[in-house]
Design goal:
437 residues, alpha/beta, Rossmann fold, pyruvate-formate lyase- activating enzyme, 3 domains, 5-stranded mixed β-barrel, 19 strands, 35% helix, globular, binds iron/sulfur cluster
């Protein structure tokens, strides 16, 4: 077997896990193939956060099974990620074409599993979870060259009632700070300029470490890494947004003024039922403190509409919190039933059509807010990390510290530099500007 192709579903954590699996395979001499058609091994790195993501995976798996049978073609099929963890051996009976099933915390075992499966001619399943995974330096094959994801912790202790993550990715485990700093230093030496720390709840980083290190302290350590110009992080649980983190965003020049703080609902009744452990006013209070300290902070959030028991009044409170907080961007979803979660058992499941209508109302309101907020940037001068040519071509593109895309004219030699751009126009998803001399 010489070539592989990875199809990734879901979040940045999955994207980064795919980079890790690619790193392992490339260190074994395999080469990445551009498409399934050219690959001898295909990994489906799956997501089960919503029903739709699961359906997408099963349809892709069906397509692969069909390809494998065609012209006697032999493709090794591996299933990784959250569905692999959720279904385990059951995947083999559902789809006998699957050769490997590998859980997110078992990635380091990938080459051993391939060898075992080839030696025995039988499928191999590893979903037990390697307890030492968070302390292992598994190689990652990154392709961006400028911006990198770095996992700082795995798992989650929060048990929100709609979420499968704690059931699938286990309890929180933090990577030792020295490993993270070494990884960031290595990235800076290879020309990377921006790092995004990943974790289900980065704010609670540090639990269970041998020597205490909080998330703000970790940011302080990485601030000292020469060559790494920008630090971002995702995701933050509002309950754990501490004054220490707010101060770190204000005081550490490399930490970008941008935070994703999922509120999920504006109704205290629904928040309690979701087990989010904050009220809408507590959330508003944190936002006030954040904006007092860092007025230019860019704030994004997640919203779930149609959670079981969500009535019209609850939903009106969600629209109200969107109005009150004025997020820069939101990610909104219909509540999706997930196996083994408490929300599944709750009374008052909301009809699909009502969820659709509510989602539309949320998008419509936020569209106006985002449009207005984007226009507030016009006339300002923004620091932009130049990423290269824009997708449409003819201009450069990059991102502000607030994570807004900006297009502007300039020389390709600027790729990788931090430049100043005067914003001259705003669209629904991006800004355009002129490079300052
Ligand atoms: S904080 Fe809640 S929503 Fe986020 S991963 Fe943990 S349990 Fe899931």
């Amino acid at each position: 077997m010489k070539s592989f192709h990875i199809i990734t579903f879901g979040c940045q954590m999955n994207e980064h896990d795919s980079e890790r699996m690619s790193g392992i395979l490339q260190s074994q001499g395999l080469v990445p193939a551009d498409s399934v058609d050219d690959a001898e091994m295909v990994i489906l790195n799956t997501c089960s956060i919503r029903e739709k993501a699961e359906q997408k995976f099963y349809s892709e798996l069906g397509r692969l099974a069909h390809l494998r049978g065609r012209d006697g073609r032999r493709i090794t099929i591996a299933v990784a990620g959250c569905i692999a963890q959720q279904e385990g051996k059951k995947l083999l009976s559902r789809s006998p074409t699957v050769d490997l099933v590998i859980g997110p915390s078992d990635i380091a075992r990938l080459s051993g599993m391939i060898a075992q499966s080839r030696g025995s001619g039988r499928p191999v399943v590893e979903t037990g979870g390697d307890p030492e995974y968070h302390q292992k330096l598994v190689p990652a094959a990154r392709t961006d060259g400028l911006k990198a994801w770095v996992s700082i912790m795995y798992g989650c202790d929060n048990f929100c009632t709609y979420c499968v993550v704690p059931h699938l990715r286990g309890r929180e485990r933090s990577r030792p700070p020295r490993d993270i700093v070494d990884e960031v230093r290595g990235l800076a030496d290879r020309g990377y300029r921006e790092v995004t720390f990943l974790g289900q709840n980065v704010n609670s980083y540090g639990k269970g470490l041998d020597s205490a290190c909080s998330f703000p302290e970790l940011l302080g350590l990485v601030q000292e890494v020469d060559g790494m110009e920008r630090i971002r992080f995702v995701t933050s649980h509002p309950r754990d947004l501490s004054d220490g983190l707010i101060s770190a965003i204000r005081d550490l020049p490399k930490v970008c003024e941008s935070i994703h703080l999922p509120v999920q609902s504006g109704s205290d009744r629904v928040l309690a039922s979701m087990n989010r452990r904050y009220t809408s006013d507590e959330y508003r209070g944190k936002v006030l403190r954040l904006r007092d300290a860092v007025p230019a902070v860019s704030l994004t959030t997640d919203i779930i509409v149609g959670f079981p028991g969500e009535g019209d009044e609850d939903f009106a409170m969600t629209l109200q919190i969107l109005q009150d907080v004025q997020f820069d961007t939101i990610f909104a979803f219909k509540y999706s039933k997930r196996p083994n979660t408490k929300a599944l058992e709750l009374p008052g499941h909301v009809p699909e059509q009502v969820k659709e209508d509510r989602l539309e109302q949320v998008f419509s309101l936020q569209k106006d807010i985002t449009f207005r907020k984007n226009h507030l940037h016009v006339g300002s001068i923004q620091e932009v990390l130049v990423e290269g040519e824009s997708r449409k071509g003819g201009t450069l593109t990059g991102r502000t510290r607030g994570n807004m895309a900006v297009n502007f004219a300039g020389s390709h030699h600027l790729k990788g530099s931090l430049v100043k751009v005067r914003i001259i126009a705003a669209g629904p998803n991006s800004l355009s500007g002129d490079l300052c001399e």
